[in-house]
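Subject: for your reference before the review

Hello V.,

The reviewers asked for a structural picture of the protein, and I figured it would be easier to keep everything in one thread rather than splitting it across files. Below is the amino acid sequence we used in the manuscript, unchanged from the supplementary table.
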Amino acid sequence: MNLFGETPMKIVVFNSSPKLSKSNTQVMVDAFLAGAQQAGADTESVMLAKYKIRPCTGCLTCWVKTPGKCAIKDDAAALHEKYLGTDVAVFATPLYVDNVSGIMKNFMDRLLPIVDPHFEMKPDGETGHRGAAGPRPDLGFISNCGFPEQSHFQVLRLLAARMARNSNVRLAFEIYRGGGGILGAQNAMLEPIVNAYKELVSQAGREFAQSGAISDTTQQKLEQPLLPPQIYIDNANRMWDKLLARHEKAE
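And here is what came back from the structure prediction:
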């Protein structure tokens, strides 16, 4: 089923990893978009580290002097067009200090020009910004972290829910991967595990493009650990020991 009629669903992923195409985050993005494409979606992957996005200065120009237009002259305006021109905007980020990367935070802050500054009382009894005129994309979130447990995404899950609420849009899906450090590993023993996970993420992409949601069954599988935590910890520590030893030897 195509929720957008005869027009293919448009999905744009904004990846904020500074490692670009070599990032574990992009492994997840590529798998998800491959599945979505197979189901007929129109997709685009945007690597934010390639763009100049300066921090928001809080000058309020975009809300008062030139509504909808930021005073800072950089690449944010072009990214706004991509954001507003899609059906689903996906924020993809590695987990940095329990939250999004700095690049992603700048991008999120610079989306403020598309927000109506007026206040209104929401149905839940909390104040928020008034719903902006014109269509806004649904939101999706993709993230991975180096620690093995899914509990490390507590902050990001809350941020995702708050962003959707404050933007008056639907939080369409979330895919989080604890133990993401193995996604890009060149290891024959880990390859079957990584390939199985990538196929699962592709399945999620296919389901989402077909129905606008990821099935409960697939979502439950996405939350399962890739490796038992202690095995992951032991392997990670061996890697750090090797890297530290290599650095000491080089000095």
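For the response letter, the relevant points are probably these. Residues 71 and 251 are 47 Å apart (CA to CA). The chain has a mean pLDDT of 94.

Happy to draft the paragraph if you're swamped.

O.
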